[in-house]
Amino acid sequence: MKRAIAIAAMFALGGCSMLGPSALSGICTAHGFAIDIDFAAAGRHDCVIAPDGSVVVSVDHEPALVEGINPSPWFAFRVTSETARNLVTTLDYTDYTHRYRPFVSTDGARWTVLPDSAVQLNEGKTRARISFDIKPGVTWVAGQPLSPARDNLDWTRRALMGAGFTEVEYGRSLEGRPLIGFVGGGGIDAVVAITRQHPPETTGQEAFRGFVERLVGRSDTKALTFRGRHRIILAPMPNPDGVDGGHWRLNAGGMDLNRDWGGFTQPETRALSGWIREQAGSRRVVSMMDFHSTDRTVIYAPPLDAPSPTIGFLPALKETFDRVLPAPPEWTYSHNPDGGTSKGWALEVLKAPGITVELWDHISPQEARALGAAAADALIEHFAK
Ligand SMILES: [Zn+2]
């Protein structure tokens, strides 16, 4: 595995192909190429190479404590090839079905989605046959542009630079990774935003980024008033084990963290809920948004008569979305105190409207960020009075 990394690094630096077949290694190797998963957020794969040079990659999920894992077959692997070739790869989901469009990249940073014509599904959608051209060197293939744990931490750090935020290690994950939060702003009220409880849900992360950019980036009087009045509590990476372990849904303890805000069986949810409560203190929490991804853009909110002093923010948020977004989200209103979601916990414990913001898996980054920015604008306009 280490050898594959060295080869990948050499190609990334522009080294020419002088490798013998024996220099390639990974989870399968033949025909002058290898597939490896030795990088953060790689999928949980095995593979075989057929005599004709085509590949079958199994797409497996993490061990789950509770039967019936949410179907989000995440794949991410790297091909190192000695020559240019067309590679036909079948993603084998066994009894799960295809969800994510394949993206490819030669540098791990710039990604191109494969056209639908390059993806053929079997009748049951349990196998996806993808065909793409690769150059000599390395090619990444993944279900979304790859975003390991450090990516959103680094992004958030940069976005908040000079904005008066403090970075906090509020705990450690089950596997010992630091759990990092950011807190900033002033005062007498508070607002909370989190994302990436579910590892592959990176379009939700884009909306979180749009939200943060707008919330701290606006410099008009209302925005200054809002930031002076509200402590801003941000958790950009509450499940780093799941993200870097290539999990579909869970943390390293086999739990869906967004079903654990009640039982608090996992260190990630215990630490995050405790930190939010500590930071909120006796402040009124005006809203807690949790950004996710699913098969459509939809807002899950508590009922409009829910017992929260700031429940009136919900119609203001909806009005903003409907006014500024070309394709505003649909809304669903409900509250389940025993569901174990951050949304339910926010209402029960913080008396705040907990809002699960779901972005369509295939929404563009620009549209996702626009939705997040609109949410920040709605907060500022509603509460900076
Ligand atoms: Zn989710």
Explain what the structure shows.
The chain has 385 residues and is of the alpha+beta class. It has two domains: 2-142, Sandwich (Immunoglobulin-like); 149-383, 3-Layer(aba) Sandwich (Aminopeptidase), CATH 3.40.630.10. Helices cover 28% and strands 28% of the residues. The protein has nine helices and 19 strands. The strands form three sheets. Strands 12-13-15-14-16-19-17-18 form an eight-stranded mixed beta sheet. A six-stranded antiparallel beta sheet has the order 1-2-5-11-7-8, with helices on one face. Helix 7 links the parallel strand 17 (298-301) and strand 18 (330-333). Helix 2 (149-160) packs parallel to helix 3 (202-217). The relative contact order is 0.13. Mean pLDDT is 94; it is low at 1-21. It binds zinc ion. Residues 198, 201, 292 line the site of zinc ion.
Give a short synopsis of this structure.
The chain is α+β, with helices and mostly antiparallel strands and about 375 residues long.
Percent range for β-strand residues: 25-35%
Provide the list of bound ligands, each named once: zinc ion
CATH superfamily of the largest domain: Zn peptidases
CATH topology of the largest domain: Aminopeptidase
Number of domains: 2
Rg of Cα set: 22 Å
- Helix/strand order, N-terminal first: HEEEEEEEEEEEHEEEHHEHHEEHEHEH
- Number of E-state strands: 19
Question: What top-tier CATH class of the largest domain fits best?
Answer: Alpha Beta
CATH architecture of the largest domain: 3-Layer(aba) Sandwich
Strand order of the largest sheet: 12-13-15-14-16-19-17-18
Report the sheet with the most strands, covering strand number, pairing sense and barrel closure.
8 strands, mixed
So what's the oligomer here? single chain
Query: What are the low-pLDDT stretches, counting only 5+ consecutive residues below 50?
Result: 1-21
Percentage of residues in helical conformation: 25-40%
Question: How far is it from the N-terminal to the C-terminal residue, by CA?
Answer: 57 Å
Whole-number mean pLDDT: 94
Name the shape in a single word: elongated
Q: Tally the helices.
A: 9
Going by helix content, strand content and strand pairing, the class is alpha+beta
